[in-house]
Amino acid sequence: MKTLKLTAKDFKYTDSHYKEYCGKADVSDYEGNIEIEGGLSYVFFKKLSAKGYILAEAGTSIEAGWGIEAGKGIEAGWCIKAGWCIKAGWCIEAGTGIEAGTSIEAGWGIKAGEDIEAGTSIEAGWGIKAGMGIKAGEGIEAGWCIKAGWCIEAGEGIKAGTGIEAGTSIEAGWSIEAGMGIKAGEGIKAGTSIKAGWGIEAGWCIEAGKGIEAGLSITCKLVLSFSIKAFAGICTWRELNGDEEKTITCGRKEGDGIVEYGILKEIGIPNEEPKTTGCGDIIEINGVKYKKL
Question: Do residues 180 and 289 both lie within one domain?
């Protein structure tokens, strides 16, 4: 497969922040690979498509008014940005961010040093990983894991074949589902359900519009809220190692939902005045009964 090498002479200066492609070759549907010289800052194409791979070396960002598409992989030393979709048969990788007006799709993985953002969906056959945030107007789906240094946010659902992990929050307008665990440094919120084959853990709150289901334990330090049912420790792939693996631990449970399976353990909200009821020899603090000695 032939390779087209683009250098500084293939781009002209504009009044904008980028240099625009002015080369003779048709790069809207190129029958081969496209390589772009490094150190060009932002380069702009009306449309960029190759049957092979697209590679922009270090110091060069790719931007297209329409779509960017490659039969193999797309890689840029800096960012990749398209007014419409970004699509690759193999991987999509950028040193900084990846942004598309509509969808981002890769047969293998998607990886960015900073943010990954799409106006509609983000989908990868393997994993999705961002040094900062991952955001989609519709759904986010990966055959393997989804991981972000900051937040993960979707207007619809979030689904991963293995785990979902965010340094701060995970939020979906619909459901959140992972074949293994779900973990967030701050909160986890879903418009409908939250489901994990392993455990669910949040540094702050966990909130589901309907139910919560986990193969192992569910843990959050603040409020746990759901409206229908919660299940913990329902894994069928091995025996549980004690009650800890079917315990739902939270600062406080809210909502009308019931714990259908599992052990609810409310430990109280940090720095919150405890709720005390009863008198005499037995009192109740935050739902736990104590006997006077």
Answer: yes
Kindly list the distances between the CA atom of residue 201 and the CA atoms of 37, 166, 286, in Å, as whole numbers in the listed order: 44, 11, 22
Answer for the pair 4, 35: CB distance below 8 angstroms, yes or no.
Answer: yes
Closest Cα partner for 141 from 115, 175, 114, 166?
A: 175
Stated as kind and residue range, the H or E segment containing 75 is strand 74-76
Q: Which of 171, 181, 182 has the alpha carbon at shortest distance from 140?
A: 171
- Looking at the fold, whether 99 and 184 belong to one and the same domain comes out as no
Q: What is the mean pLDDT of the chain?
A: 94
Count the domains in the chain.
Answer: 2
**Does residue 281 share a domain with residue 184?**
yes
Tokens describing residue 218: 């569910």
| Closest by CA position to 260, among listed 286, 242, 241, 234 | 234
pLDDT tens digits along 36-78: 999 999 999 999 999 999 999 999 999 999 999 999 999 999 9
Q: Virtual CA dihedral for 272, 273, 275, 279, nearest 10 degrees? A: 150
Range of the domain at 249: 159-293
d(CA 144, CA 153): 17
pLDDT of 274-287, one tens digit each? 554 444 455 455 55
Question: Are residue 23 and residue 126 in the same domain, yes or no?
Answer: yes
**pLDDT score for 275:** 56
126 and 164 part of one domain: no
